């Protein structure tokens, strides 16, 4: 129900990202041939922060939408870059006792402050995908696993105090008590993607795709190296449509 209620927003995001991706491909001189495969994706993001410095972190529900492009195939292997908008962050977060000079808003007991982070990213993963035909239904039904690196740039940031509300939160990702006028969250992130899904070909017009993946951040979220260790983690569940025909086996 959460995904369905937000599908108009996801569709709008996917359309905008698709336009950006097509413009990028044309700018790089990559032809959009009849055998090429361009796809749209949209769905749900479940995210939190993980790491040795995180004591508790509630999951944040968000949206994701974007587009993917299959560059080439070699047997059952495909290489596919993507361009996606992903909402990450966490619900109520309490970090381990803050080290001297730390910047993120984690304070030790007995009066802890809980903080919610809203972090929205433009993410570019480049994925290797192994596609396997399934011995069910008609030709074009397949399952796949995928993995690869991802780069993400922060588009939006919001910090909201909860608990006793004693934190003074500025605009964006600024917490005056710790970093003054500077952001406490990095503007970019590197990560790894691991996932899989199903491809269901619909005649010669395209294919429906179901995808689930986990994205783990490699960089600390905090700018200050003295802060407790916390990294992005997100689980994405998407429904998509690939254009220009579907998987017909290899």
Q: Any overview of this molecule?
A:
This protein has about 250 residues and is mainly beta. The protein has one domain: Beta Barrel (Porin). It is built from 3 helices and 10 strands; from the N terminus they run ααβββββββαβββ. Mean pLDDT is about 75; it is low at about 1-5 and about 100-110.
What are its keywords?
single chain; eight-stranded antiparallel β-barrel; Porin; mainly beta
Name of the top-level CATH class: Mainly Beta
Number of helices: 3
**Distance separating the two termini:** 37 Å
Whole-number total of structural domains: 1
Please write the string of helix (H) and strand (E) elements: HHEEEEEEEHEEE
Mean pLDDT: 77
Outline: elongated
Q: Based on DSSP secondary structure assignment, what is the total number of beta strands?
A: 10
Rg over CA atoms, rounded to whole Å, is 20 Å
- CATH architecture, by name, is Beta Barrel
Query: Which strand order does the major sheet show?
Result: 1-3-5-6-7-8-9-10
Main sheet summary: 8 strands, antiparallel, barrel
Q: Which range best describes the helical content: under 10%, 10-25%, 25-40%, 40-55%, 55-70% or over 70%? A: 10-25%
Taking pLDDT < 50 over at least 5 consecutive residues as the criterion, the unreliable ranges are: 1-7, 98-112
As for the CATH topology, it is Porin
Helix-strand makeup class: mainly beta
Strand content: over 45%
